[in-house]
Write a structure and sequence with these properties.
By secondary structure, the chain is an all-alpha fold. The protein is 57% helix and 0% strand. Helix 2 crosses helix 4 and helix 3 packs antiparallel against helix 4. The relative contact order is 0.08.
Length: 143
């Protein structure tokens, strides 16, 4: 029977893809010393006869798992505050106002982007109506 790979060795194969909306990597990076220490401890030998049944410490593994779950919960709560609709729209409005002032976004951008956020998509023909720059009659719209 082949030896069981250690938790630390297995974690080197885990790719924390931060391209998605939520990632545990942010929380682990904020606690990197504790993360590494608990990860290494989870691969340590048993701490006496009452510490699990295998060669490695069950107690240390449980400590690592508890830490990891606390980090996950913290990151889910963090993302929940970022995605709170009222706060998200407020931050979006501030950002778009800055972009309009610098000329990177055209005037009327906020209503269009707000609609895209809330509805998920906007039909091209609706842009003029939403921004009130021109009607749906095909007249000029800057979007």
């Amino acid at each position: 029977m082949p030896p069981t790979p250690s938790l630390a060795r297995l974690s080197t194969f885990i790719h924390y893809d931060t391209g998605s909306l939520w990632s545990v990597a942010r929380g682990l990076a904020r606690n990197v010393q504790k993360y590494r220490a608990l990860l290494m401890a989870a691969d340590s030998p048993r701490r006496g006869d009452l510490d699990g049944r295998g060669a490695l410490s069950m107690e240390a593994l449980i400590e690592f798992c508890e830490f990891f779950l606390i980090i996950c919960i913290d990151q889910v709560e963090f993302m929940a505050t970022l995605l709170d609709p009222e706060d998200l729209l407020r931050r979006m409005d501030l950002h778009i106002k800055e972009e309009v002032q610098t000329g990177r976004f055209p005037k009327g951008s906020f209503p269009l982007l707000r609609e895209a956020l809330l509805a998920g998509e906007v039909q091209r023909g609706q842009a003029g109506e939403i921004t009130r720059l021109r009607g749906a009659d095909g007249a000029k719209c800057c979007f």
